[in-house]
Amino acid sequence: MKILGIETSCDETAVAIVEAEGGASPVFKVLSSVVSSQMKLHSEWGGVVPMLAKREHARNLVPVLEKALREAGLYVERSEPLQATSYPPERGRSERAGKLLATLLVREPELIAPLTTLLQNIEIPAIDAIAVTKGPGLEPALWVGVNFSQALAAAWQKPLYPVNHMEGHILAALLPSREEVKGKSRKVKVEFPILSLLVSGGHTELDLLTDWRTYQILGETRDDAVGEAFDKVARLLGLPYPGGPAISALALKGEANPRVVLPRPMLHSKDLDFSFAGIKTAVRYLIEKLTGMEALLRRSKASLSLDEQTKADIALEFQNAVVEVLVSKVDTAVRDHAPKTFILGGGVAANIYLRDSLSKLFAEKHPDVQVILPSRELTTDNAAMIAAAAYLRITYNMPPETSFRAQGNLRVTDSGEASQ
User: Taken in order 122, 126, 128, 130, is the CA torsion positive or negative?
Assistant: First the structure.
């Protein structure tokens, strides 16, 4: 089965085509995965601006789709281009069909012309379904992908599956990396229950999966997500956006410093929740103490008074504090819920110190638990993970949808049933 995935939840415009088989024991082959990042655009603002993200998604979706189809070998030009009134071909050249794209893309008018041109010039690709991120994420950005995917599904007469973004991050760990042979599937035997730690700019949560349909949130952040904390601390240190890679790189130069000590928030709480707003504030107060200046949240002038070694020491201490909390919560969750598999997911999963610390935890204390870490390039938002998550929806006979709202968050009721 071939599934085309579309991802526009934040600042990456992504389209991928994934071939899947195996049912509840899935095996995935990535035929193409194209990501257009807006990082440089948003770095000027120190974070993602939703309406700018929406605009860029509308500009990028058709070129990214075309490139993904070409890489997968599914871009086949028509011998004679269709007329604009021919969508979908099965419906004939009626006036109603001619207005189909304009109706479905009424909120994204800038997409109508380039998508119409593409659809007129190519054959319907040999895919079985379309998947799209419906949330969580930035609502203006999500809507572009949702409306675009609805137009494609109607034009090509393919079923459309909405996917929860966080489900995708879990499935990313089962996808083959670029280091592996291109086009080759990755076979990973997964045993339930699965404990998953999802760490990103918008989420920090521990989930327990008893099968691919049932997600129980064991703990989540009460305020800032861990990736958000990295970004905010990076601003305080005068580092560029995104903050995670910048802090990790600077931390490599850091040393233990008795003047640089930060708290470990909720390290000894009796639950599995997280809190990272306080440690950001602690960094601010630390900078003020070391410099005698007020640390401005947007652009830290106080950090300019810090020497580079002290900045590196702060970056190291911050990273150590955050990772210590994450690893401790994972340790507690393993002891309490006895999972057979552990999966790490989300953008912060690219952090090498976090990956090494979790690997060490399981090697030393829980050697019987299988640990699956995603390749680092698949920790960031991508459409291959969305296509993979849709495959499991198809496997469990979850119906496709033709009309749905963006921004739905996956939750679990007390009965254990997934809800939106």
Answer: negative
